[in-house]
Each structure stands twice: as C-alpha cells, then as structure tokens.
Design a protein that fits this description.
41% helix, Sortase, Chain: A, alpha+beta, 9 strands, 5 helices
Length: 305
C-alpha cells in the first residue's frame, strides 16, 4: 500500500515538473517574442541605413566625388539641357503626374549613376542622407527617395524646381520620416556627379502641409493642394522635398522647399565620410539590438530556473 502511494506521489511530482518546464519555456518564448517585437522597427531601420550607406558609398566612389571629373561634364550638360527644355512648359502648365508609366528610356538615361542612383540628398540637421532614384515607382521608393518625373533634374538652373519624394514611417528605413523636424535656416545638399549643390529653407513659408491633388481642375492651382508646389518659378532654383503626413495616416503631404545658394568649398567634403561613419554606427547598433531579445530571455530563464 505504501509502495503504491509512493509511486503515485512520484508520478504527481513528475507531472508537476513537466508542467513547470513547459511553463518556463512558454515564459521564455513570450519574453523573446515581446523583446523582438520591441526592437523590430529600430532594428529594421538600422538595416535600411546600412543598405543606404552601401549604395551611397558606391555612388560616391564611382562618380568621383568629391573630386571634380571633367569627363562627367557631358552628362551634367545633358541634364541641364533637359531642365531648360521643360522650363517654359512647367512654368505655364499645371503639373499632373500619372506615375511610372509616363517615364521614358530617355529620361532614365539621364544621370544614370550607379545602380539607378541619380544623386544623393542630404539634410544634416535631421539626419537624412539618401540615394535618389529615377521616378517614384514602388520599387524605387521601397529603398530610397525618388525624383518625380516631369520636374527639373537635380542639377539646378536659372529657373528650376526639382521634386524629390520619399516615404515616411516605413519599417524598413526612416527615409523622410524625420523631414518634419526641418526648420527655417536648415541647409539641404544635393550631391550629383562631381558637384555639390546647396539649398536653404528660408522661412516658415517654405514648409507646408497640404492635401494630395484629387484630379479636379479647379484644385490645380490651389495652395491647399500639392500641385502648385511642383511648378517652376521664373528666376528661382528650388529643391522641393515631398512626403506623406501624419505618419501612419498619410492623409496629407508635407512639402519643404529650399532655395539655391552658393556652396561653401569646405562643405563639399563633409559627405565623403558621412556614409562610412553611419554604416559603422548602424552595424554596431544592429548587433546591440539583436542581442537584446537573446540576453533578455537568458536573464528571464535564469530567474525562473
């Protein structure tokens, strides 16, 4: 009788131990899942930064930046000629963009760069440094900023308006997420071929939140919609940055316009180190973020075992 009772107690202890082990494993799995969810967005954002840095560094090395290369003048002059050809049209006609289907092979052949990158956009004050591709197709905007087809190319001109668009709130990269922190007085740099163009946000009037164009002709020239901000103004060299807002809702568009000014010779060299530094920091940050779920789970197991 005693032997049967002892065996029964042993089975109960075995079952209790099994339940205890399962409970601990569930706690460990839940801890890992929770910590992984917390670090997922910043982790993917840093991965995006690393990818951007690789593309930027490749563009910088193959385009000859920051040293000036006379062999690139032909490519630069072709882009300038393109801007002159659309200057009159875009200053007189409302701009209507219908998407990547309008883009032509001739357009894509302008400023071909490396890997489809036509230039690099840099806003130091808010930590933006992005490659810019041709057009605003889903494929382009998934990994970089895009030049809006039909607007001036990013080489400037007496009368020009280059529009560059990017997503905000993406889980894979910050892209233009921080554009809303830009302020009057901030500078924006465009690194194209062997040149650096400098633009400055002059006042609060250069920062606008408007509605996306709804296709109605009567709204084509309304300052409450985005279309007028794509227009060329005679005698003004403008760089227009365009993104959705508020983040996650995307009901409106944030538009920042910066005006061309002379580039300080010292500034031309700052972008050379920036991508490499950011790449190293992103790599270290990714490693640290990746360790958080693992270390957190190990500590939790240590406490419950």
């Amino acid at each position: 009788m005693r032997r049967r009772i002892s065996m029964k107690k042993s089975r109960i202890r075995t079952q209790s131990d099994l339940y205890d082990i399962i409970l601990r494993l569930l706690i460990a799995i839940l801890t890992y899942a929770l910590l992984s969810a917390v670090v997922y967005i910043p982790f993917m954002s840093q991965i995006g930064h690393m990818s951007e840095s690789v593309v930027i560094r490749s563009y910088v090395e193959k385009s000859g930046l920051p040293e000036c290369d006379d062999s690139q003048n032909t490519e630069y002059l072709r882009a300038v000629e393109y801007n002159r050809s659309i200057e009159t049209i875009r200053s007189q006609t409302p701009f209507f963009y219908r998407g990547a289907s309008e883009e032509t092979d001739a357009y894509r052949a302008l400023l071909p760069g490396t890997g489809g990158v036509m230039c690099i956009i840099e806003v130091p004050s808010v930590g933006i440094c992005l490659p810019v591709g041709h057009g605003t197709s889903d494929e382009v905007l998934e990994t970089m900023a895009g030049h809006v087809y039909g607007t001036s190319l990013p080489v400037g001109g007496i009368s020009a308006n280059c529009v560059i668009a990017a997503h905000s709130g993406s889980t894979s990269s910050r892209l233009f997420t921080d554009l809303g922190r830009i302020a009057p007085g901030d500078t924006v740099f465009v690194h194209v071929l062997s040149r650096t163009l400098t633009y400055r946000v002059l006042s609060d009037k250069d920062i606008s939140v408007v509605l996306p164009y709804d296709g109605r002709i009567e709204h084509a020239n309304s300052p409450e919609y985005d279309v007028p901000y794509f227009q060329i103004k005679n005698g003004d060299d403008i760089l227009t940055l365009y993104t959705c807002t508020p983040t996650g809702i995307n009901s409106h568009r944030l538009i920042v316009q910066a005006h061309r000014e002379e580039t300080d010779e010292k500034i031309k060299q700052t972008h050379e180190l920036y991508p490499s530094v950011r790449h190293t920091r992103s790599l270290i940050f990714c490693i640290l973020l990746g360790l958080i779920p693992i270390l957190g789970t190990m500590l939790m197991l240590k406490r419950i075992i």
